[in-house]
Design goal:
Elements (H helix, E strand, L loop, with lengths): L5 H13 L5 H20 L4 H10 L3 H14 L4 H5 L3 H15 L16 E4 L2 E4 L6 E4 L2 E4 L5 E3 L4 E8 L6 E6 L4 E11 L6 E2 L4 E5 L9 E8 L2 E3 L8
Antiparallel strand pairs: 1-4, 2-3, 4-11, 5-10, 6-7, 6-9, 7-8, 8-10, 8-11, 11-12
Helix pairs in contact: 1-2, 2-3, 2-6, 4-6
Bound molecules: zinc ion (ZN).
């Protein structure tokens, strides 16, 4: 097996940093795990870049969620126990830790768009424009030109970046703290990655018309303790 060269290791280190996974005591261990995984992938004929992508894809959301509860309870246990964590559990731990380390976080009190905003569909019951049935609208719709920049509405960590053919289309979910999540949908472009830390006002993507959408707009949701809230109660236009 060919060990990775210095330059490759430095590039992996940089990615972990960008994803906010550089939590001191665990950084070396995480780096070891990921290098080992990449080396394994490369023995099956993958190029470094492909092996890297595969290894990063391997710790996506579902596995993380499942392990989250388990991992949180490990926070209070001893270091030898930490060493026996699976790679996925380790990643989960670091995401949770980086959210916790962000400290006091504002509720999502910024508008996701700059300048004069126009809400074309409010929160609550409405006739769905495509499905023509009465349905609860879980967020608000902002009318905006395609390509209009979309901003994170509070500090947090990106937990989902997905391209759905229908429904939300291209959409992003940010976890702000234990209580708040926000969702940005129908985008044309997504400029962030899962695991990336964002600040209130960080550019995350652009307005579009992807998914179940009748025209360019931003569909925006505020989720508090798993329940949809009216986003207009949180930001002042
Ligand atoms: Zn909507």
């Amino acid at each position: 097996m060919n060990p990775l060269n210095e330059q490759q290791i430095v590039s992996i280190e940089k990615i972990l940093e960008e994803k906010g996974l550089d939590y001191g005591p665990l950084k070396e261990e995480l780096l070891d795990h990921i290098c080992c995984q990449i080396e394994n992938e490369m023995t099956t004929g993958n190029l470094f870049s492909q092996a890297l992508q595969k290894s990063l894809d391997a710790f996506q959301e579902d596995e993380m969620k499942e392990l989250q509860t388990q991992t949180l309870s490990l926070l209070n246990k001893n270091q030898t126990f930490m060493k026996r964590l699976s790679f996925a559990a380790l990643i989960t731990f670091m995401v949770v830790a980086s959210v916790t380390l962000l400290g006091q976080i504002d509720p999502p009190d910024r508008s996701p768009l700059n300048g004069d905003i126009k809400i074309t569909s409010a929160f609550g019951m409405r006739m769905h424009p495509i499905y023509k049935v009465k349905k609860k609208h879980n967020g608000v719709d902002f009318k905006a030109d395609p390509g209009t920049p979309v901003y994170a509405t509070s500090d947090g960590v990106v937990v989902k970046v997905e391209d759905q053919e229908k429904g939300y289309g291209k959409h992003i979910v940010i976890q702000h703290d234990e209580q708040f999540k926000t969702l940005y949908a129908q985008l044309s472009r997504m400029d962030v990655e899962v695991g990336q830390k964002v600040k209130k006002g960080t550019l995350i993507g652009a307005v579009g018309n992807s998914g179940a959408s009748t025209g360019p707009h931003l569909h925006y949701e505020v989720i508090k303790d798993g329940k949809y809230e009216n986003p207009e109660h949180y930001f002042r236009p």
